[in-house]
Amino acid sequence: MTWTQLLAQYGYLAVFVGALLEGETVLVLAGFAAHQGYLSFFWVVALALCGGTLGDQTFFWLGRRYGTALLERFPRWKPGAQRANRLLRRFHAALIIGVRFLYGLRVVGPMAIGMSGVPVWRFAVLNLIGAALWALLVAGAGFLFGHALQWLFADIKRYEEGALLLIAALVVAFGLWRRLRQRGG
After folding, report:
1. CA 182: distance to chain centroid?
2. First vs last Cα of the chain: how many Å apart?
3. Rounded CA gap, 133 and 121, in Å?
4. Contacts of 47 (CB under 8 A, 6+ apart)
5. What is the pLDDT of residues 36-56, one digit of tens each?
6. Which site from 34, 59, 135, 180 is most exposed, i.e. has the minimal number of CB atoms within 10 Å?
7. What contacts 115, CB < 8 A, 6 or more positions away?
8. pTM as predicted
9. 71, exposed or middle or buried, with CB in 10 Å at 0-12, 13-18, 19+?
C-alpha cells in the first residue's frame, strides 16, 4: 500500500485522533495533503475542531473529577498544572482559548482549568473558540506551505513525498528543540 493510499484511507481518522491529543504535526501534514488534493480542507478543519474540542473537554472533566489524584499519580504534570493555574489567574479567557497553543500545556492545561472551578459552560464556549482558531491556523499553515512549495516548484507532484517528510522532520525538530530548551531552564 502506498502512502497516498494510506492517506486517502486513514487521513481523516488520523486528523481526528491526532487532534484529540497534541495533533499539530498531523494537522500541518493534513493541511498540506488538502492542498495537494488528497484531503478536503473543510473536513480537515472540521475534524480537527471536533477532535480538539472533545479532547480538551475530556481533559477538563478529568481534571474536574480526578485532578488531584492524577497529579499525585503523575507528578511530572504538577509544574504544568501550576503554570496553567498562574496563567489562569491572570489571563482567564485568553488562557482557555489559547491553552492548545502553549507548549507543554495541551493535556495538563485543560485538566488544571477543570480543577480551578471555572464554570463548565464558560470552558465549553471558550474551548470551542480556541479549537476553531487552532484548527484553522495549523491546518492553514500546512495548506500555505503546500502553496508556497507549488509556487517554488512548478512540478510539485514529484517532490510531495519529500515535502511531507520535510514538514514532519521540521515539526519534530522544533518540538525537540523546545523540549530541550524547556528542560535546560
Report:
1. 19
2. 44
3. 19
4. 12, 15, 16, 19
5. 888 999 999 999 999 999 999
6. 180
7. 63, 64, 67, 68, 81, 85
8. 0.74
9. buried
Given a cut of 70, whether residue 158 has pLDDT beyond it is no
pLDDT at 47: 96
Decide: 80 and 127 in contact? Cβ < 8 Å.
no
Q: Alpha-carbon distance 18 to 60, whole Å?
A: 18
DSSP per-residue string spanning 58-83: HHHHHHHHHHHHHHHH-GGGHHHHHH
Please give the Cα distance from 176 to 107 (Å, whole number): 17
CB atoms within 10 A of CB 158: 10
CA torsion 52-55-59-64 (nearest 10°) is 90
Q: What is the pLDDT of residue 156?
A: 57
Distance CA 15, CA 18 (A): 5
Q: Which three cell numbers, joined as nine digits, stand for 36?
A: 495537494
pLDDT tens per residue, range 60-116: 999 899 888 887 888 887 887 777 777 777 788 888 998 888 777 777 889 888 988
Dihedral sign for Cα 47, 48, 53, 58, please.
positive
Name the amino acid, one letter, at 36: Q
Instruction: Give CA 77 to chain center in angstroms.
Output: 18
Contact indicator for 99, 57 with CB cutoff of 8 Å: no
Q: Which three cell numbers stand for residue 67?
A: 485532578
Taking the C-alpha atoms of residue 165 and residue 113, their distance in angstroms, rounded to an integer, is: 35
